[in-house]
Amino acid sequence: MSEAEPGHEPLPVGEDEFRMIADSAPVVVWVTRLDRTRSFINRAYLAFLDVPYDEALVFDWRRVIHPDDAARLIAQSIAGEASMDTFDLEGRYRNAKGEWRWLHSTSSPRRDTQGRHIGFIGVAHDITEAKEAELSLRDSEAQLSAFISQSTAGFAQVDLEGRFVLVNERFCEIAGWSRDELMGMRMLDITHPDDRARNLPLFDRAVAEGTSYTHEKRYIRKDGGIVWVNNSVSVIRRPDGEPFGVLSVTLDVTQRREAEAQMRKSEESLRLATESAGMASWELDLETMQGEWSANRFDLLGMPRRDDGRGSIDEWLERVHPDDRESVRAAAQRCFDTGEPYTIEYRVCRADTNEERWLQSHGSRIDYSDDRPSRFVGVSFDVTDRKRAEDELRASEARFRTIFEQANDFLITTTLDQKITSVNPAVLAALGYSEDEIVGASIADFMAPDQLALALDAFNQKMREGGSTRLTVTVRARDGRALIWEINSRLTTDADGKPTGLHAIGRDVTEARRAEAHLRLLVDELNHRVKNTLAIVQGIAQQSFKGVTDPAIARNAFEGRLAALSEAHNLLTREHWGAVSMAQIIGDAVAPHGRDAGRLELDGPDLPLLPKTAISLALAIHELATNAVKHGALSQPDGRVRIHWAKTEAEGRARLLLVWEERGGPEVITPTRRGFGTRMIERGLAAELSGTVRIEFRPQGLVCTVDAPLPEGAE
Amino acid sequence: MSEYAGLRVLVVEDEPVVAMCLEDILESLGCETVGPAGRLAEGLALAEREDIGAAILDINLAGERSTPIAEALLRRGVPIAFASGYGAVPEGFETVPLIEKPYREADIDAALRGLLNGAE
């Protein structure tokens, strides 16, 4: 307000004119006398109070002053008046409508032409809007200030060289330096050396071009600690647009960074773990159907790795074996659509080698509780070896099953307490039981106590020493037959080597044992016969060489006798050492001595003889024939021998009568000495037949008569 | 030779040639032969009737075993030896010596000496 002009009474302009001016002014105008009564008020004044003019002239302003402002305004007013100078007041007054309005008044002393003080002239204008704006600004400044100082965010202002000029408490806490220390330092001074190279260009560009940026970096605290911060940086400009500083809003993100690092670490460990386990993984954002493959997923499919790690579903399905492709696609699609996880095994053809491999894949959909789109995560690993092993195992099981079913050998498994758990068909066939009757029964049900004891001994030995046992036991078939089984068995064990049961493989050796016993009998018998034969040969040799001076004669006799013996053996062998024909024995014995020439006549029934008797008879006939050839009928061209035998009967018992009768030979002289031949015939044959043998040296020819009970085997 | 002078040895042997052979051996050793018997009944009769100082018995006599003869002789205190190609004495006669066929004169000599020494 301009200073009040030096006043005159009357007014320098006409009173009406002044009133008109004052009334048209948008401000409250008043004029007071020394006694503080008003001599003039304008229309705005009246409008504010909305009382009649006369009443307004004497209105006590103190009635409408805001209680908070009253004391101040009254005091200032008194002081202002006393100063005899222009003074201003500012305060809230209540208008006629009851509203508090901010009024700014300026009062100036009035003087007359002589300079005497005659009162005051005042002007007041409504500053409510401005005041409220100011107050509002001050409030928001206070709020901002409070926000800044109390914020979890740090605020720092630096100049264009990066020197700190303003920092809040929080920034100091975050940065780990006091405000005093920070002032004068540059922001790069507390920035981690490794982050400076990245930070500086951003800052320079912001200063040069006004671009804001947000980045994360590390501060080094005074105590040497490191803090990760997220800084939102913007340039502060003067009203004319000239930048004068850079403001940073700083958040401490150390914990988040650490958590992230931790997560990265665990993600890395998980990745390493899965990869080292041969597990490949892939992810898919189900909204965009985009995602990444782990490096070894490319390897698994025989595809070259890609820097961006991107691989599509179709690229995967393309590698899947055509026979498996539809089922694989369906499983994945169902998982995408319904969230139903899947585990599938399928074949792929490697892109590089076209080799067929088996993969096992698990897929799951991950749904978030917030509005993030669902993701798909899948892992795969190569199970070709396991698959092959399984196939191998299956094939091997099938083979063993076939062997088990078709083996002629007996296959039996039992528990550790001898309960039968399985048998193959061969066992059922051998014993004549059904499977139901055998499985679940004890082995004791199929063998005698002494045989069971053998089996238990073998079992206990395996429990003690492990290994396998071979055992021959007699088992009983359903029809009571005793079967001799040779059984090899060993314990089955679990992974820890603890016995779980017994596995036995057996074979019926009943026939083999019988054959073996028979063979042993045969060998013993053969041995016996050989020894006996040797004893006979020895005897023949001894008799042939005894007392004979001419070795050639002795040898001839020996050879002849051996030949007769051999001939008899031939016959016996042909007849398997059973009964042989008497006619045959006699015929063979005389054959070398001219039977073919018709000089020997055989006449008798075909009686069977036991082998031993046959040999003695053969040797005796040989001796008679030899003698006949040397000294008797057969030494002459016309000599004849008649051999006749017959079954006779005497005293009710069957007898054999055999007569060797020579004719046509030289005159017989009774020998002075009896040789082996005579002895053999008279004593040997007689003993053999338990009868009598008589040799008569009749002059017309030798006659040998055998009278004996009908030999065994000849009845 | 004179060692066995007057010793009467019973020969039980069903094989005539072998029996003759044994007779000759015994004769050459200076023994007197009793028998030979080729059948059980015959042998048994001799064993019970004859004056016998020792006996050599074939085990198998035309399908019968000579053990009754052995028992009869042992009862009489006559030392015996078996002669056989089987390689084993009959059950129950484990203490009786065995002469394996075929045998030589020396085998018979040794067996007889054993029998006589054992009997003394």
From TrEMBL, chain A:
Keyword Lipid biosynthesis: no
GO terms classed as biological process: regulation of DNA-templated transcription
Molecular function in Gene Ontology: ATP binding; photoreceptor activity; protein histidine kinase activity
Presence of keyword Amino-acid biosynthesis: no
Record field: catalytic activity: ATP + protein L-histidine = ADP + protein N-phospho-L-histidine
PAS domain boundaries: 140-210, 266-339, 396-466
Record EC number: 2.7.13.3
Cross-referenced InterPro entries: HATPase_C_sf, PAC, PAS, PAS-assoc_C, PAS-like_dom_sf, PAS_fold, PAS_fold_3, Sensor_kinase/Photoreceptor
Enzyme class: transferase
Boundaries of every PAC domain copy: 87-139, 213-265, 342-395, 469-521
Keywords: ATP-binding, Chromophore, Flavoprotein, FMN, Kinase, Nucleotide-binding, Phosphoprotein, Photoreceptor protein, Receptor, Sensory transduction, Transferase
Pfam family, one: PAS_3
Source species, domain of life: Bacteria
UniProt-recorded name of the protein: histidine kinase
Native organism: Sphingomonas gei
UniProtKB/TrEMBL annotation, chain B:
Record's keyword terms, sorted: Phosphoprotein
Pfam families named among the record's database cross-references: Response_reg
Protein name: Response regulator
Alphabetized InterPro entries for the sequence: CheY-like_superfamily (IPR011006), Sig_transdc_resp-reg_receiver (IPR001789)
Modified sites of kind 4-aspartylphosphate: 58
Organism of derivation: Sphingomonas gei
Keyword Cell membrane in record: no
Source domain of life: Bacteria
